[in-house]
Amino acid sequence: MEYNQIIYAVADHVATITLNRPEQLNAFTGTMMREMIDAFDRIDADDDVRVVIVTGAGRGFCAGADLASGGDTFAAGGSDVHTQVPGVPRDGGGLVSLRIFECTKPVIAAINGPAVGVGITMTLPMDIRLASENAKVGFVFARRGIVPEACSSWFLPRLVGISQAAEWCYSGRVFSAAEAQAGGLIRSVHAPDDLLPAAHAIAKEIVDNTSPVSVALTRQMLWRMLGADHPMQAHRVDSRGIAERGRSADAREGVVSFLEKRPPVFPVKVSDGLPEIFPDWQPPTFS
User: Are residue 121 and residue 250 in the same domain, yes or no?
Assistant: First the structure.
């Protein structure tokens, strides 16, 4: 796919997706949705990519849905998405969030400027969020007469707690990166010129020191267990994972490289296939 509203680049085992409508503060459209989903498909298929960074071009990260349609902006479900059950359009932000949720690589959000509406909810299934001092955040849906989308009613309370999520969503106000950090949404706040270097430093630590398959499985374990109702479910998954990974070439290399005091060179690739440690996992369908 040729990209018109994002920029996709890979360097040093890091894929960078840059939302690229700077004159519109990277406002979200159906085109951007499809391009982001395609980019994450490419990321999962490319063993050279170990980590993903998502950021915005210009002075904004993403100003939310493009409001060019005026009062009819949300009439069809918020974007020009046509995949639907009869009479029910799919939420475009939700399709992006679900695709990021299923990604096998860690995803870092480098929020360089305003991130409101879908501009912030799309970051919730990302693993780590960093922000510029210039960033502003807002779950503004109630002020637009709609409701939270992009699966944020699932993600946000799990990330920041129900009370903080409720305050931000009920008020719909726009707030600072510092408040987002204090509320547990943002890992750290940086001077504008330091934001991407900080994101790349985290990515480099992952790239240089970890097994791609171990990270992919760990990502599944952490996110999927958020919905578990008893630690026994985690114990089952942990036990299967340790058994599978413990006899792998990666486990041998991880121990030997540590004993030999050298950087590891993990031989197993994500494209070789992930061990089945979630035999009962069945992603629900839209209905």
Answer: no
Alpha helices in 14-151 (DSSP H): 30-45, 92-101, 118-121
Q: Tell me, what CATH number does 67's domain have?
A: 3.90.226.10
Total domain count for the chain? Answer: 2
Q: Which domain holds residue 265?
A: 211-272
What is the three-class DSSP state of 53?
strand
User: Is 114:60 a contact under the CB 8 Å cutoff?
Assistant: yes
Work out the average pLDDT over 41-58: 98
Q: What are phi and psi of 14, to 5 degrees?
A: -120, 125
The pair of three-digit structure tokens given for residue 213, joined into one six-digit string: 């398959």
Q: What distance in Å separates the CA atoms of residue 84 and residue 172, rounded to the nearest whole number? A: 28
* Cα 264 from Cα 255, distance rounded (Å): 9
Specify the pLDDT at position 86: 63
Whose structure tokens read 């706040």?
A: 189
Show the tokens assigned to 113: 């400027």
Mean pLDDT of 178-182: 98
Are both 111 and 253 inside the same structural domain? Answer: no
**β-bridge pairing 51-56 and 14-19:** parallel
